[in-house]
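Hello,

I think I submitted the nicotinamide-adenine-dinucleotide job twice by accident. Can you confirm which output corresponds to this input? Input:
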Amino acid sequence: MGRLDNKGIIVTGAGSGIGRAFVNGFAREGAKVGVLDLDPAAAEKVVAEITAAGGQAIALAANVTDRDAIRGEFTRFTEWAGRLDVLFNNAGFNKPMPFLEVTEENWNAILRVNGWAVLMCTQEAARLMIPQGSGKIINTSSVAGRQGYPDFTPYSASKFAVNAITQATARALAKHGITCNSFSPGVVVTPLWDALDKDLMEMGATSKPKESIDSFSADILMGHPAEPEELVGTALYLASSDSDYLTGQTIMIDGGKVLI
Ligand SMILES: NC(=O)c1ccc[n+]([C@@H]2O[C@H](COP(=O)([O-])OP(=O)(O)OC[C@H]3O[C@@H](n4cnc5c(N)ncnc54)[C@H](O)[C@@H]3O)[C@@H](O)[C@H]2O)c1
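Support: Only one job matched these inputs. Its output is below.
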């Protein structure tokens, strides 16, 4: 018996990093997982990993900002899995810019994926969950949803938005038996940091490879940045019936980087 036997769970941005670790963890606990990503080849690769280990998974290809594509893939998923029990709104990205140089284009691009898409994908999941009378929405926030960082201003704003959307979703959907929570990683060693490291060096904010992740990790009480696997236990709790009475909350899983 797994903790998630036959639960239908979609994770967006599951072709890499945190999402990839989550879908592998959920499949090990018996869930039927939808591996949704902008990059279809990455999603297929993760599905192959899961099925090779004996799990059940389907690749879903969509940009989380595209309502028609999301609706189509969520429908295809429920036809395959039978139902949608849990949606993890996890896809996100950052493109740092110095505070005084942030452009409207940079703001709009980040807020569209990290903010708007969380709300829109939640609406699309709710269409499927409301008739079931149950469901869980889980959003990936960040320590940048608790603190504003000057090189990450739109990103921080987008993650504060995630926390607000989490509270609003919890209040809007409780009467349908649907809960909503988010979790906030601090520094997690994923390809997102490879891109950040390069961008911050090009901006002149750092001068050598890995300086950004090392300096951002310096105040983590646990003494090291997380590997994606270190977040899986909390994700399992949020996806399973263990968290049925929890809603509207943002859980910090940051090794004690931000205390709030
Ligand atoms: N890595 C960290 O230190 C860290 C810390 C806090 C929060 N987060 C958040 O965790 C989430 C996952 O980050 P990660 O570190 O695993 O990053 P990652 O870059 O390793 O993976 C992100 C995945 O999302 C996909 N994606 C990006 N934009 C998409 C879109 N528009 N539609 C569909 N898929 C899209 C990418 O193709 C990629 O596979 C993000 O929301 C990020 O903001 C990461």
